[in-house]
Amino acid sequence: MNVIRHVLIRGRVQGIGYRAFVQDLALCEGLEGWVRNRLDGRVEAVFAGPAARVTYALDACRRGPPGARIDALDGRNGSLADLTHRRTGERFSVLPTV
Hints:
This protein is α+β, with helices and mostly antiparallel strands and 98 residues long. The chain has helices at 18-28, 51-63, 80-83, and strands at residues 2-12, 32-37, 43-50, 69-77, 92-94. The protein has a domain at 25-68.
């Protein structure tokens, strides 16, 4: 069963390679979606794929890469519309800051 999850991660998540960590994780797990920094200091991401792999990715995001400190990970069910932000031809995109 495939799922789509839209998450916001708060803590020390910018300037430490968090987006690259998320992209590598998603690609290794065969997930689709995107990740981007937000001007308010959070990181936003969408993951789509088999439920178990999405759950694994979210658990990894709660730990983050070395140097990260995760204060909160808030998620909701996503939609196919959330995936339209990806760059054409990319399975998982790192998007510009919003």
